[in-house]
Amino acid sequence: MKLPHDSLTGLIDADALRLRLSDLTRATDGDGSDLAIRSKVLAELKEAKKAGRVLAEKQLNEDGGGFLCAKRLSHLQDELIRVIYDFAVWHVYRITNPSAAERISVVAVGGYGRGTLAPESDVDLLFVLPYKQTPWGEQVVEYILYMLWDLGLKVGHATRNIDECIRLARQDMTIRTAVLESRHIWGDEALFKELDQRFNDEVVAGTSSEFIAAKLEERDERHRRQGTSRYLVEPNIKEGKGGLRDLNTLFWISKYHFQVRRQLDLVKKGVLSRSEYNRFIKTEDFLWAVRCHLHFLAGRPEERLSFDVQREIAIRLGYTQHPGMRDVERFMKHYFLVAKDVGDLTRILCAALESQHVKEARGQGISGLMQRFRLGRPVGMAKPVEGFPGFTVENNRLKSNSDTVFKSDPINLIRVFQIADKYGYHLNPELTKLIRRSLKLVDKKLRNDPLANRLFLSILTSRNNPEKALRKMNEAGVLGRFVPDFGKVVAMMQFNMYHHYTVDEHSIRSIGILSEIERGDSEDDNPLATELINTLKTRKVLYVAMFLHDIAKGRPEDHSIAGAKIARKLCPRFGLNASETDTVAWLIEHHLDMSTIAQSRDLSDRKTITDFAHVVQSMERLKLLLILTVADIRAVGPGVFNGWKGQLLRTLYYECEPHLSGGHTKVSHRQAVEEAKQTLLAKLDHWSDEAKEAYVNRLYKAYWLRIDPQRALAHAEVIRKADESGDKLAFEVTPHSFEGVTEITVLAPDHPRLLSIMAGACFVTGANIVDAQVDTTTDGFALDTIFISRVLPDDADEKRRGQRITDLIGKTLRGEEKLPEDVAKKGSVKARMKAFKVEADVLVNNSWSDEYTVLEITGLDRSGLLFDLTRAIATLNLNIGSAHISTFGERVVDVFYVTDLIGQKIANISRQKIIQERLSAAVDGKLNMSSAASVSR
Predict the structure, then answer these.
(1) Distance between CA atoms of residues 623 and 594, nearest Å
(2) Which pTM value belongs to this model?
(3) Pairing of strands 891-899, 879-888
(4) What is the DSSP string of 252-271?
(5) Residue 389 pLDDT more than 90?
(6) Counting beta carbons within 10 angstroms of the beta carbon of residue 195, is it exposed (0 to 12), middle (13 to 18) or buried (19 or more)?
(7) Residue in 216, 226, 24, 244 with CA at minimum distance from that of residue 118
(8) Nearest CA among 144, 499, 116 for reference residue 295
(9) 657 in helix, strand or coil?
(10) Where does the pLDDT of residue 360 fall: very low under 50, low under 70, confident under 90, or very high at 90 and above?
(11) What was the pLDDT predicted at 359?
(12) Contacts with 26 (C-beta within 8 Å, 6 or more apart), sequence order
């Protein structure tokens, strides 16, 4: 990159600094070895370093030049090293008549060798000494290193002669790469030139295949460590896929193989076009700007763009808010587009390498490039693809017969991906390069072409690997141009902790998961979805809805409603009829409903089910929505979907199914209660008739309507043991491996604070509550059940963990131990969550249940929140029937089904307002519990 004429001047005046340091030695006749003099020298150097860095940051904020900032910081470091070197050899270890053995070449290697340096990066140095050495060389090196360390720098260093450098570079690819990027800073330049010449002659010559293979393998391993997607919402800007290290790898390979010293030389070699070179420079400049800002902001070598710094960097870079997108989301979209450009440049370079046959066959794809020749002979011959005269296949990789294959028939820009998917071909790098250069052919005419749309639909609904084909289309830029509405969400990031990927990556992953479910590959984790997907009347609408479900993200309007409108426009273009279009639009509009209801509503409440059934209306839609919901949640990120969420979705499906098939309405509440009682009694054959009759009459109607037979039997045994022992407290811990939860049941004298005590015990022991069910008996006992996230794989270990929680609950209820007075003080908002603002919102709703008032509480998640909420509800004199705890990244949605103390809904508007105010204060951690209790009394 060509820099402005005076871009590096002004950070430090090295000559003036040398004079000041020289003046310090006058009192000692020029001897700078005195410790007092060294301290003063160090102070001068520290001041120069500090002033230079402050100015570099100021200039970065003014001109925004990331690459320029890295060059300035490298120049500053160069000058400091030169000044230290000069002081060492003139004032500390001065020799009047140096011999040939008393020479040193100070060489920058690694990233510093490229002449770029991030604010907090390591300084990598190589001290090159002659073959014959004297103690003088070691003394000077030691002085320089200690001075740099005392300046607060982290210095990577090696001291070697040229023979050692060559020998080690042959043996170690990391050392070879470091020497490849070496740059003379100061000292004896002849030593450096000899090293450079011998390195090219004795190490580089004839070994480019070996080097490229090693660098690509190293890159692949790095991607595996960092995450194989370049669309992770907290990317590593240096080591992640699409980051600076990928650009470095490209240039290492180019420099080694094409023998170039600058990126511009790749244009002269015909590897990059001028526009591609400009893209290389722009991506590098942007990534350097982000990295420099990140280091300045963190004050340490931080490379991960975590949520807590993203918005500050967006502001520093000048991004502003637009309708539907926040400033930070616009910044991160730019970042991911740049990461995508890095991927494009990788493919372009690999195409150039492919054409020169520089690497033996290994693997497939970009990591397995240059496999055309093995041992100097062709691996396979190109064969025509039957029925598609414009294409040939060689070594299972698709190629074009000419550079005009797309210009002569633009439909080939869609057809090429359909062929690759149909036969399982990879795309030759040259073909990918040609696709990128033909994107302007994807115009309105092609978008509306019936054949092009049929081909696209066949890719989207393929029974092979639609995710792979769609990702290829997206990476090549075809997908966003063919479906412009999808192009608007390409690289779009949602600034929250729930979504792990960009919108386009999430959508494509969800198609892959849908295909996986259809193949039966995830039957163990998704049994119902796997069972249902093969009973659908049409699978086409499911795949189209999945592809389009988030297509309206980033718009001012609700994305579900806006997405349904887009679907009504796109589906006819894709060839769907009116009925199919209507189903797709409905699925998109309601694609969040099933997840929301399953996780935050009482599924034993009849009105929850009837209301949901009224929305769904048909069994076919219920099946489609269940499968789509499972795939959508699983595609959010690793670990987001778990057995408990799967169980909730299955429960909602099975509860809703009879409503839509006509069976449920034939059974009255009375019949349902009687049936539940008889089912339990049939399993209690070891009980006396009197005990059976007494037990079923101890529990209210609501209990029998929602309890499943297995849990009813477990509860019966818990209560019986308590009765026999005379203990008023009883506990049961049951791990559930498939659902990924542990069930804790507590029998205790009824008390409005019981659930709060259970929540507090869970907080103290580090357990995470995901659901709760509260029941009472006719003789004044509470039968409360909570479900906590499972932590330990072994059932016995997990049961012991649960028993530690029940022990604490028991001690607290007996008065033997006291829970923390203010949990919020012990567990505040986590550092990563401080970047988010979630306004506390409390909804009081009487229409979601016939018997309860439903409190839906939304806010920023923090430790102890559930404890505070349940304590607040207790002080409001409310009885909790059930609680449903959902966390979506940084946002928590807690739902409580409550009544007043006499079992009635909260109808009074004034009291509803007090509830909203009190619970909002609890969410924010601002509620004074003692005053709240006195007010409620």
Answers:
(1) 11
(2) 0.79
(3) antiparallel
(4) HHHHHHH--SSTHHHHHTTS
(5) no
(6) buried
(7) 244
(8) 116
(9) helix
(10) very low
(11) 42
(12) none
Q: Which two tokens stand for residue 721?
A: 């043991």
Task: Locate 755 and state its tokens.
Answer: 């659930």
Cα separations (Å) of 557 from 327, 492, 564, 571, 895? 18, 16, 11, 20, 26
pLDDT digits (tens, 9 = 90+) for 851-899: 899 999 998 888 778 888 988 998 999 988 888 888 777 788 889 999 9
What confidence score (pLDDT) does residue 188 get? Answer: 93
Instruction: For residue 830, name the pLDDT band (cuts at 50, 70, 90).
Output: low
Three-state SS for 710-744 is HHHHHHHHHHHHHHHHCCCCEEEEEEECCCCEEEE
Classify the phi-psi angles of 740: left when phi > 0, otherwise alpha if psi is within -120 to 50, otherwise beta: left
For the chain, how far is it from start to end, CA to CA, in angstroms? 74
Task: For residue 33, give both structure tokens.
Answer: 């070895």
Helical H segments across 830-889, by residue range: 865-875
- Measure the CA–CA gap between 927 and 57, rounded to whole angstroms: 43
Instruction: Specify the range with the lowest mean pLDDT, choosing from 275-284, 375-384, 643-652, 680-689.
Output: 375-384
Is 665's pLDDT higher than 60?
no
State residue 821's pLDDT score.
Answer: 56
Angle at 749 between CA 746 and CA 755, to 5 degrees: 50
Distance between CA atoms of residues 195 and 165, nearest Å: 8
- Looking at the DSSP assignment, which residues form a beta bridge with residue 879? 899
The tokens describing 875, both together, are 């002080």
Question: How far is residue 576 from each of residues 23, 391, 483, 568, measured CA to CA in Å?
Answer: 85, 30, 16, 10
C-alpha dihedral over 554, 559, 564, 569, to 10 degrees?
-10
Q: What is the 3-state secondary structure (H, E, C) of 541-569?
A: HHHHHHHHCCCCCCCCCCHHHHHHHHHHH
Distance CA 816, CA 820 (A): 13
The beta strand positions in 35-182, using DSSP E, are 105-108, 123-129, 155-161
- Classify residue 771 by burial, with Cβ atoms within 10 Å: 0-12, 13-18, 19+: buried
Degrees to nearest 5, angle at CA 797 with 793 and 803? 130
Q: ∠ CA(836), CA(838), CA(840), 5° rounding?
A: 150
Rounded distance between C-alpha atoms, residue 868 and residue 136, angstroms = 69
The answer to whether 749 and 780 are in contact (CB under 8 A) is: yes
